[in-house]
Design goal:
The structure holds two protein chains of two kinds. Chain A is mainly α. Chain A is built from seven helices and no strands. Classes of the chains: A mainly alpha, B mainly alpha.
């Protein structure tokens, strides 16, 4: 019964986020969807994923959305300027280094296929994350690295435009 | 039926499956209908919520919450990076054109 209430609430808030007229309400609705999903994850014996969902999705991503909405409302339309040369090619080595480190770690880990019995044994999340899905951890680092580089490049470009 | 051979009818998995598909369809509807860049990102987020729900349900119902949590954490990390970069692109586009309309993004139209 509680499960059905939570699932209905999840989809209902999702509808609200999509159908709300203002962007701010949509962003807050999305945060509420994450909060409802967090409760569901706790009820499904996934506390670590729930904590991640609450802190990152309900917190960080909502903040990002609200910031984007406020920045796109406050900024006035600007005149087009002449295109400037790319100044961000200097970040290319960083990406290359990240890719090389990632590949090196992947070879180091080996990441050999594990037996199905091991995977279906209901292993602890720490064991699953570090032993069974070790490459995922380094892939996450690589993705974070690329994301940070991307954000730096984008905001550097905005700074150049001003 | 093939699907019933894998997951029998009446299994609680189908409840989670239906609601996660509903979430994914809601996000897809949002992406398809809107022309606002921020709403496109919101739709994308809703779709990942559906994927998270089905992953967690699969782990819970099979007793493999360790693996499912590891996959969910990876999904969340990828999700937040995608949103951060997309947000930067949206802001850059808005400052350049003064518009959040996706139909105006036709610079690379062939």
């Amino acid at each position: 019964m509680l499960l059905m209430i939570l699932l209905t609430l999840l989809v209902g808030i999702g509808f609200y986020a999509v159908l709300s007229k203002t962007l701010l309400k949509a962003a807050i609705g999305l945060g509420a969807v994450s909060a409802a999903l967090t409760v569901l994850l706790f009820s499904m014996d996934s506390p670590l994923a729930a904590v991640f969902e609450l802190s990152v999705c309900a917190g960080l991503i909502t903040v990002i959305f609200v910031s984007v909405i406020s920045m796109t409302k406050a900024a006035a339309p600007r005149d087009q300027k002449e295109a400037e040369p790319n100044h961000y090619l200097k970040y290319l080595p960083l990406l290359a280094t990240g890719a090389i480190v990632f590949c090196a770690m992947r070879y180091w880990l080996g990441d050999a296929p594990v037996a199905q019995a091991t995977v279906t044994a209901g292993v602890d999340v720490r064991h699953a994350l570090w032993d069974l899905r070790g490459t995922d951890v380094f892939a996450q680092l690589a993705v974070l690295f690329s994301g940070v580089s991307g954000v730096i490049v984008l905001f550097k470009e905005l700074k150049h435009d001003e | 039926m093939m699907s019933e051979a894998i997951v029998p009818a009446g299994n609680p998995f189908w409840t989670y499956f239906i609601f996660s598909v509903l979430l994914i369809l809601t996000g897809l509807y949002c992406i398809t209908v809107t022309r606002n860049l921020i709403r496109v990102l919101i739709g994308m987020e809703l779709m990942t919520k559906g994927a998270t729900l089905i992953l967690a349900a699969a782990g819970y119902l099979t007793g493999n919450t360790g693996v499912s949590q590891a996959l969910i954490i990876t999904l969340i990390v990828v999700e937040v990076v995608v949103i951060a970069v997309a947000a930067g692109i949206v802001i850059g586009w808005y400052r350049k054109t003064g518009s959040l309309d996706t139909s105006a993004m036709n610079s690379l139209r062939g």
